[in-house]
Predict the 3D structure of the following.
Amino acid sequence: MTHIDDKIIELARTALSYEYGEEHFYRHAAEMTQNPGGKAMFLRLAEEESGYMEDMHKLFSAVIGNDLWQQLAAEEAAHAHPSKVIAEMEAAVVQRGHAALADDAQALRMALELERRIIHLLKELSGHTQDSDALKLIGKMITEECSQYDALQAQMDSIQNVGLWLDTPEFRMDGRF
């Protein structure tokens, strides 16, 4: 186990807030989106989020210990409210000056911002542990989040350049197709 300091606890709490809010966020983005293909994509992302929580549990149990992780998870679950993450993402979009744009593009911008924040959090966490298993899991999680980010960016490029949504993945960034 890694030395537990306030920064690791802060990262764990932030990770929990994102993980508890991410599924709700994608469902909210599906509501914002007018295009049926866009709705389908966001709903698919919401369904995929439940599998990522298991990796988060494994990672933080290894880094801060199972008891402390379970305590933090219980606290966050008791206070989890999807509007917290949604409000943060909407504020980030407004701050970047994109609030007046179309709902489809705004939903994608918010999703990209959320994925960017999660990737940053995982990279920052990797600097706080020497545990080789935890570092491998962090690498796996970063790869998954980067793949989601790339897929969302492809969607953004599609609607900005052609106006077509890709409601199912046309490719995978990991080369498994």
Remarks:
- The chain has a mean pLDDT of 79.
- Residues 6-161 form a domain with the Ferritin fold (CATH 1.20.1260.10).
- Helices lie at 6-32, 36-64, 66-79, 82-95, 103-126, 132-161.
- The CA atoms of residues 122 and 139 lie 8 Å apart.
